[in-house]
User: What shape does this take?
Amino acid sequence: TVVRRDYTATVISFGEARQRYLLVNGIGMTILTPITKFIVHLPLAFHKAPPESALVICFGMGTTYRSAMSWNIDTTVVELVPSVNKAFGFYHADAARFVNATNGHIITDDGRRFLKRTAKKFDVIVVDPPPPVQAAGSSLLFSKEFYDLAKQHLKPGGILQMWFPGDNEAVTCQAVLRSIHEAFPYVRCFSSVAGWGVHMLGSQEPIEQLDASELAARMPETARQDLLEWNEVKDVPAYLGQVLANELAVPALLNPDASIQVTDDQPFNEYYLLRRLRRELDDF
Assistant: This one.
């Protein structure tokens, strides 16, 4: 077990092999899961032109950043907690190679503040907000205003990927999706390879209807190897197909009430207590 403390949080890393864990102020952040690879491989493969840059908001164990680097593109990752970045090597033995890469940039900052202050634009922006979904302040990465800011930093044809881990209220997912739908004219959603959570992709331009073989063909060999790192079956199209086969119809997911969305002034995901208590009383 490794404990790190900084001005932001206490960060604990523990476990062995694939069973390693990351706690920030006692809250589990993520695990070594292929979901965090798909978070970036999916939008990069869907990008119509060969992508040249990616922005990862929230570092976690560094898996998504590492996967983006496997495309041999300029990759920036922004993480609020300095000790989370420093824990990279605990989870990946080859972390030093990515830390020292000239095309990689690990920045300690608030993701939204970084976007407000940078002039850079990216082909893909991916976001994996820290759990829990109901946490105070988490709406700042789920709100329509955030997506409006993010799309200003996407190049033409750029794609934003928002990972939503799931929640015991379906209406919260509907609210997050509505916010993306209000910001982007084209949105596609896919259930994850692990069977829980949703990849939400938004773009200013249509996201192509490609099959798994076409997506796989767009991936450089290093990216293909990275995607299959934790998969026993070494078949990239088949693996991608597990996600493509579970595309969700966006209109069917949206709540008929358009006011159910996340905004800076109405952080729907954080206003959960009364809804939950009312549901428990109805079930009593």
User: Anything to note?
Assistant: The chain has a mean pLDDT of 94. The first strand starts at residue 2 and ends at 5. The first helix runs from residue 35 to 46. The chain is about 35% helix and 25% strand.
